[in-house]
Amino acid sequence: MRAIFGLLAIMTVCMGAPLAAQETRVAEEGFVSPHATIEQMDWLVGQWVGTGIGGAPAMESWLPPSGGTMVGTFVQETGEGDIRFTEHLYLMEQEGTLVLRLKHFNADLTGWEEKDGMLTFRLIAVEECAAYFHALTLRCDGENGLVAAVRMKSDKPEPQELLFRFQRMGHSAIIAEK
Q1: Is pLDDT above 80 for 171?
Q2: Taking Cα atoms as reference points, which of 146, 129, 147, 150 lies closest to residue 25?
Q3: What is the CATH number for 6?
């Protein structure tokens, strides 16, 4: 419950007008997820840097699959460069399809969700360079870009989204930054 209120508070403070085109998709209750494998998500492996809430820096990293699961991390910074919150993510095969599970953490590593709680996003559709989960999207944006979007509940009548835009951080980018 705390996670929902935390995300709503962030969205209330940071979101402006609703987006004209929604990145996320939602499915009706009782939908059946399509067949998918973790190998279809190999395009996601790597380090991604870009902007997140309120235009502040954000980073996302995904490890190669291990045992049918890809482990990811997400860091949302403040405008001053401090950690606002982080996420620990599991993109995993389950019953012939994919699910994405995540837990949020404050900067001091205290969790948003209950001890054994997590958010679970079920797959709606998978494409060559995109995965659409119920209320969460991960998709390529050009050759080295990634868009991540999550649909949020709010007091507004239209759906609201948090949108994150990343660029792949390659070996040459790491050397250039040093």
Answers
A1: no
A2: 150
A3: 2.40.128
- pLDDT exceeds 60 at position 74: yes
pLDDT in tens, 26-47: 888 889 999 999 999 999 999 9
Indicate the pLDDT class of residue 157, thresholds 50, 70 and 90: confident
Residue 121 token pair: 């996003």
Question: Residue 88 pairs with which residues in a beta bridge?
Answer: 73, 103
Residue 131 has a CB neighbour count (10 Å cut-off) of 22
- CA 82 – CA 102 distance, rounded (Å): 21
Q: Amino acid letter at 95? A: E
Q: Please state the domain count of the chain.
A: 1
Give 84-148 as a DSSP string: EEEEEEEEEEETTEEEEEEEEEETTS-BSS-TT--EEEEEEEEETTEEEEBTEEEEE-SSSEEEE
Task: Identify which of 15, 45, 60, 25 has the alpha carbon closest to the alpha carbon of residue 163.
Answer: 15
Distance of CA 169 to the CA centre of its chain: 17
pTM: 0.82
For the cut 90, the answer to whether the pLDDT of residue 5 exceeds it is no
